[in-house]
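In this section we walk through a basic example: taking a raw amino acid sequence and producing a predicted 3D structure, encoded as discrete structure tokens. The instruction is simple. Fold the sequence below.
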Amino acid sequence: MTALLSVQDLSIGFGAGPSVVQNVSFEVEPGQTLALVGESGSGKTISCRAALRILPRTAQIRSGSITLNYSKGTADLIATSERQMRDIRGDRVSMIFQEPMRSLSPLHKIGNQVSEVLWLHHRTSEAEARKKVLTQFERVGFPDPERAYNSYPFELSGGMRQRAMIAMAMVSKPELLIADEPTTALDVTTQAQVLGLIKELQRETGMALILVTHDLGVVANMAEQVVVMHKGRVMESGPAGPILSAPAHPYTKQLFDAAPAIPEQDAVGLPMPSEDLILEMIDVSKTYTMRSSKAWKADKLIHACRGVDLKLARGKTLAIVGESGSGKTTAARIALGAELPDPGGQVLFRSSEEANPTTVNQMSRAERNAFQRKAQMVFQDPYSSLSPRMRIQDAMTEPLEIHKLGTVAEQKDKAAEMLTRVGLNADMLKRYPHAFSGGQRQRLSIARAMMLDPALIVCDEPTSALDVSVQEQILTLLEHLQDSLNLSYLFISHDLAVVARIADEVAVMRQGLVVEQAPPETLFYNPRHPYTKALIAAQPEPDINRPIDLKLVALGAGSPDSWEDAFRFSDSMIPSLIEMEPGHKVRCHV
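The resulting token sequence is shown next.
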């Protein structure tokens, strides 16, 4: 069979420097899935961008050929005219980008941006385009397609924006879809459903897929062919089965060793009793009012959190897991005082075991300043949380300047000490954020959060955008810092393998409610709630013989109306969180 896309001996460089992609070759046939696997900086993304000719201006294709054999004939994608490339891009060949906030226009509504593909390439009417887009939004997992259609990008969570990017790439039913880390920002249940959707579209249309990823579990569930890249070169390539079951190259084996996984054991643990609580959330709810776009329609209430009760022991890690929009980040923001809970809710913080509790949602200015020194946050996207115009030294010392701590020399010494503590060199202080890799920037974010010697750190998806080997390094770093400094973590994640490794207690959230809570040893091996079971079933494993059970995922991740009677809930009828066994709570009707 003739390859749909053929890349032969591709080399790409910048300026007078050496080639960053060297003699890379791969092919993908119609209906086939090819996975490009490797760490950040291995050349996966730039090789795919070369096929669409969307490289940076300074990039040069120094050698090689890229040929597309599609429905309208054969095209040399390096030599073809820009006009023909515009016809190919977005219609016959689509790309899902890794960072949706950079790829979506902040000035236009999501629905209009997705519809634009149909307007430009298919001359579809506005009404027909809207109908197709809403159908696509429903298929990629938007709980309220109409709301998403009329929203701006900043009004959606990171996971929701990624769903919009996936819908945009797939709405025109392309012959080739290039997916650059398409599920990195998605929770595992949505990831499983989106991967299932892509497979379904492949069966319907014969679409080929190039999947750029570092997740070997996703590769095992999707790919027929695998190409492993490292430092711009192909290390290993061939059918997925042999590579995943018996990798030959040491680098591929290293990727397998670094991949997190839920450990296989049958032990059921009990929670570690501790009365020394650093943080306590009592009956915390948060309701937002979304103004209607129509003057004659009533405003809509959004229940982000409902009756959340959580306790975090000093020196321990409490993980909150759930899908995008489940309320986990809202709960974290309330815990830090960045949001106020609805009346009746309380957040209590104890700076030390002997200290009187501070009510975070009722702090005075002096109490807030003291609290902010003791509670810090590490964000999901380290690039956005570091100012591109500030040198690392200025970004690191800024918290000390705000709180008027130390002299200029002492502040610099503290910044150098923190960089060393997180595994970076003190001579990096004069650099800007763009000079660092994604993993290094996340280390910088952790170091900045450590500048005020906090007791509590809220980690909001700190490893979701990182490749597996860097993720392993960051988790090891967080564990080391916790052990050496007795830190407490409120850890927000959708990756159960990460949670299984780092958490002492896990709370599962769905639609603003904690539906199950237990230590990981109990939760992962004796789950009771259908949504928890769906989360565990949706976790991809790097084993081609253990595919994701999409039926089980769809059952638990679907509407609460589809659950068993004991677990169903609605806005008017919410069951209590009941202790089923010591330390194991489940929201259900008794």
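Looking at the output, two observations stand out. The chain is about 35% helix and 25% strand. Residues 266-272 have pLDDT under 50 and may be disordered. In the next section we compare this with other chains.
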